[in-house]
Design goal:
Elements lengths: L19 E2 L3 H9 L1 H16 L8 E4 L26 H11 L7 E4 L9 H10 L8 E6 L6 H8 L5 E5 L5 H8 L3 H18 L5 E7 L8 H8 L5 E5 L5 H5 L17 E4 L4 E3 L2 H5 L7 E2 L5 H5 L2 H12 L6 H7 L10
Helix pairs in contact: 1-2, 5-7
The structure holds iron/sulfur cluster (SF4) (2 copies).
The site of one iron/sulfur cluster (SF4) has 11 residues, from loops.
Length: 340
């Protein structure tokens, strides 16, 4: 494996962060779900723009497994270590039963900060549960694609998963090995197989989103990435790195010029042990605002509880005296301001 160091140089080129849309996901989703999808997007925007206080989140991020089979250079999650804990299917059922009482609850993301397919049997057990519930209808899975073999692909094609996000980062084996230390041939084979099966079955789902984190090793590969992957993707997404707080704060160029958070009006983050946090920044970086655990609380109680209401109040006021994670987050790079 190549041992070159990683220095978190971010791109300043706005075009290099623009997604390439081959099949527009919003069209696919609105064709499939009609008003249900349009209402969901409207509620999402209202919650964000007007800080609309809903009785239940619109979206949940659930870490179905706290583990990964890769060792990427830039991984923030691995720095705190993997517990390898799996999210209990019993707990997921409890959440889905409760969530079905709320018409605006619409989307879920499985394994937002670890590898969703790390334990394939567990993954299949988890995704089958969604067959028994009407909500959420927009189901995201994030994977590095290494375990996306033929058998898992068919499980996914037969499931209610709407969006499959696969991290590719490059079109080159050598770059992939530097960045992700994985088997690029296997990744390519897996993605091509998935996309061909979708064509054979003539189905729109899952929408295949290939993701690239633009960095010092692949910043000049954009055109080649697009021509290599475009036949096997519905959308190719380019994004900047999320930096560790301490890295970002050493350099003022990474500070946000303006940022208004609206996560606590839209979503919650649940870890594999059932701990609930307001957002991924709290669950990855500073775990200093644990809202409760889903084993002995409901989502409704947590969402409407004092701790989250205090956070909303502080964010609305624009002062960050009480929650250091928010202060760090505000002064960090999640949405790096692209310099013209
Ligand atoms: S695939 Fe994702 S979770 Fe796994 S090591 Fe890489 S960045 Fe971290
Ligand atoms: S850390 Fe605070 S400001 Fe940052 S996304 Fe989370 S809730 Fe919002």
């Amino acid at each position: 494996m190549n041992k070159q160091s990683f220095t978190y140089n971010l791109t300043k080129d706005k075009t290099s962060l623009q997604s390439v849309v081959i099949n527009e996901p919003t069209v696919i989703l609105s064709n499939e779900f009609g008003d249900k999808y349009l209402n969901y997007r409207q509620t999402w925007m209202d919650a964000a723009r007007k800080n609309l206080k809903l009785s239940f989140p619109i979206h949940l991020d659930i870490e179905i497994c706290d583990a990964c089979n890769l060792d990427c250079k830039f991984c923030l999650e691995k720095q705190r270590g993997w517990s390898k804990e799996r999210f209990s299917s019993h707990l997921l059922k409890k959440i889905l039963h409760e969530a079905n009482n709320f018409d605006h609850f619409s989307s879920i993301n499985l394994s937002y900060n670890a590898e969703a397919l790390y334990d394939k049997n567990h993954f299949v057990e988890i995704i089958k549960l969604f067959d028994f519930f009407e909500r959420p209808f927009d189901i995201f899975v994030h994977t590095n694609g290494v375990n996306l073999d033929q058998s898992i692909t068919h499980e996914i094609l037969n499931s209610k998963i709407t969006n499959l996000c696969v991290s590719v980062d490059t079109f080159k084996k050598s770059t992939y090995e530097i960045l992700r230390s994985g088997n690029f041939e296997k990744l390519t084979e897996n993605i091509k197989y998935l996309y061909k099966q979708k064509a054979i079955l003539n189905i729109d789902f899952p929408i295949v989103r290939l993701s690239c984190i633009v960095n010092e090793f692949n910043h000049d590969e954009r055109d080649d990435i697009i021509s290599y992957w475009k036949q096997y993707a519905d959308i190719i997404e380019f994004q900047n790195l999320a930096l560790p707080f301490e890295t970002a704060q050493k350099n003022p160029k990474y500070y946000r010029s303006s940022f208004k958070c609206n996560d606590p009006w839209k979503r919650l983050t649940i870890q594999s042990n059932g701990d609930v946090y307001p957002c991924c920044a709290f669950s990855i970086f500073n775990r200093n605002l644990l809202l409760g655990n889903i084993i002995d609380r409901t989502i409704y109680e947590i969402w409407n509880g004092q701790k989250l209401n205090d956070l909303r109040k502080e964010i609305s006021s624009g002062k960050y005296t009480k929650f250091s994670t928010c202060k760090d987050c505000q002064n960090s790079q999640y949405k790096y301001k692209v310099e013209k």
